Amino acid sequence: MKLLLLLCFSSCFLFSFSQDKNQFYALDKNMNQTVLDSSKYILWIHEKEDSNWQWDYYNTWGSLVKSTSFADHDGKILNGRFCLYNTYGNLDSVGVFDRGKKNGSFYKYRTYTKDSFAIIHQYDFVEDSLVKSINIQNNTEKDKDTANSKESDYPGGINAWNAYLGHHLSYPDRAVSKEIQGQVKIYFEVDADGNVKDSYILKSIEYSLDQESLKVINESGKWDPGIKDGIKVTTYKVMPVNFKLEVQ
Hints:
Layout: H1 2-10, E1 14-17, E2 22-27, E3 41-47, E4 53-59, E5 64-70, E6 78-85, E7 91-98, E8 101-102, E9 104-113, E10 116-126, E11 129-135, H2 157-168, H3 173-177, E12 182-190, E13 196-203, H4 207-218, E14 226-228, E15 231-233, E16 235-243
Antiparallel strand pairs: 1-2, 2-3, 3-4, 4-5, 5-6, 6-7, 7-8, 7-9, 9-10, 10-11, 12-13, 12-16, 14-15
C-alpha cells in the first residue's frame, strides 16, 4: 500500500489503476488540473463497496475540504454521504443524499477551538423537503441510563486497543516526508453483532494519515456490542488516532 501511494502522488497529472476504480488529480486554486508540485488541492475519486463513487478533495499537504458520494463515476448524481470540513479539518456539516435528494438527517457542527467541536443543529429532510429542525444545544432530552446498559467496547478494553494499534498502525511515508502529525478522529457504528460499519472522518489531518486511520478502524474485527435494557444495540462511536513523530 505504501508503494502504491508513492506511485500515485509522484504522477504529474493522473494515475489510475484497477480499471479506473481509483484516480488521483492535482488541482490548482481554481480547481483546474495541474502538476503536484504547484497544486493547492488533490482529488481522489474511488469506487466504494456499495458501488457508489466517492470524491475526496484534500488540501495537497493538509486536511479534507469536501467528501462527496455519487451514484456515478462522473459525479452528477449525489447519492450517499456528503461532508464539508472547515479550515481546521473539523467536520462542518454532514448529511445523506438519495439519488440527488436530501433524505434523513443533516447535521451542522460548530468549532469552538481547533480540537473542540460539536453538533449544534439537526435538519430532517424527506424527498428534499425540510420536515423538522432541531437546535441540539437547546435540546435537553437525554437517554435515561439503566443499570443494565453499557457502551460498545473493543474486546479487552483500552489496553487491548492500544496493543492493537501498536501492532497494526503504520506512519505513512507521505506524512513522514513532510513531518505532518496530529490526531485524526473517526466516526463509526458498532452494530448489535459487534461489526464496525459506516466509518468516516470526523477530524482530518492529511490524506495518508486519514486513510491509515480508517483502515485501522475498519480492520479491527469484532467489538463487544453495546447493551441497552439488556438488549444488544447499535452504538455510535468517535475514536481518536494519534500520529506523533519521534524527536531526533
